[in-house]
Amino acid sequence: MSPIDPRLQEALDAERDPGELPTDLREAYARLMAAAQLLQTTPRLSVATRIMTEIRLLPAPVHSDGPMRRLIRWFGRPRAVTVRLRPVWTLGLAVGLAAMLLLSSQQDSAPTPSASEGIANFIGHFPGAKSVEVVGSFNNWSRGTLHLNDDDHDGIWHAAAILPAGAHEYMFVVDGERWVPDPLAGRYVDDGFGAGQENSLVFVRPAAAQP
Amino acid sequence: MVNEDADVVARVLAGDGEAFGILIRRYEPGLLRFATRMLGNPDAAADAVAESLVRAYRHLAQCRDPSRLRSWLYRITGNRCRSHLARRHMDDIPLSEAPPPALAEASDAWEILVRSEQVALVERALAALPAEKREAFVLKHVDGMSYEEMAAVTGARIPTLKMRVHRAREALLEALEEVVR
Question: CATH code for A117-209?
């Protein structure tokens, strides 16, 4: 078997016009194309009937999805689940569920003040403020323990805290740097630093005394 | 044709099994010709095509791109032919199994005789090629596929297929030097 001219290969691959080939290559081109044409004769037989007969006996092919889609479909498909329980177990289960509900309701509820404590509400109007917190005698004037919230962004900030019953001095700290007394406090006391500044005063009534 | 294939495949997968007949009518002649050239025996080719199309029906949902159904069907049929050749422990075709010459298109007795001789000689030359080169030549020059489609059918790389076609041409040209004029 000898290699044939690359120009002939190119012509046979339709990459070159066969009319441009030299005479001997053009003849070789014609021989190969004639051979291919002879092979293009289609056999005169058919297996269509045989195939259709066979496939009519087979289950219909269906779309098959990948494993991930099958898993997702399995999770999304409603299924009947049967649980067989003895009645006594059902009773125990009901008690257990009730205990869990009771426990969770207790956990979810807000803390309640003891008899010697009460709830103090802090409210201030600070439109445009980014943060407001309360510092006072009840938290050693430490920042970061009692923040006010303004969830609806109307400039009115609010916080509630359980404090020991009695009087407590406090100040608002606005945007982390501006200390201001509560204009709605009603009572104020000198802050003791001699600069004429006053702290706000709140009176917490014991919860036991609440109506 | 490409979009029509996808439509027919969708119909079959939706439960219309009879629509598969459309695909059989569309591709059976080409597949039979391909299998006949590969196996050199019309009966074996018919078996290979029937088995391939039944297999295609059963696994139709796994045809990832129904718009390239032709390549998929040729691939299944090519695999079936290779299995058949492997069972015979050979990939060349015994001359006794060479298909009979096709006479349908000849118009008179002399032309029939000449054409039969030509077809038989070309088929013998083709049968003498190794299976891979025979397959490459048939897909390229008998079924008129592009190298890209041939790659989809055979799973071989395009440079490999080009080399096979080139080698097949060289062998055939040498064998037919004095035959087909």
Answer: 2.60.40.10
A68 Cβ contact partners less than 8 Å away, ≥ 6 residues apart: none
Q: With DSSP H G I counted as helix, E B as strand and the rest as coil, what are the percentages for chain B, rounded to 5?
A: 75, 0, 25
Cα maximum dimension of chain B: 55
B85 to chain A, closest Cα gap in Å: 20
- Partners of residue B176 in chain A, C-beta under 8 Å: 31-32, 35
How far CA B82 is from CA of A62, B51, B136, in Å, comes to 28, 13, 13
Structure token digits, residue B175: 């064998």
CB distance A43–B181 less than 8 Å? no
CB contact under 8 A, A48 and B167: no
Give the pTM. 0.57
pLDDT along chain B (181 residues), means of 10: 80 91 94 93 92 93 86 94 78 49 55 74 88 94 94 93 94 75 46
Task: Compare all CA atoms of chain A with the CA of B21 and give the residue at the minimum distance.
Answer: A52
ipTM of the complex: 0.78
Cβ pair B13:A47 closer than 8 A: no
**Tokens at residue A180, please?**
């201001």
- Residues carrying CATH 2.60.40.10, chain A: 117-209
The full DSSP string for A4-41 is PPHHHHHHHTTSS-GGGS-HHHHHHHHHHHHHHHHHTP
Dump pLDDT digits (tens) for A97-148: 888 888 776 655 567 788 888 888 898 888 889 999 999 888 888 888 899 9
All domains of chain B in start order, with CATH: 2-175 (1.20.140.160)
Quick check: A47 and B32 CB within 8 A? yes
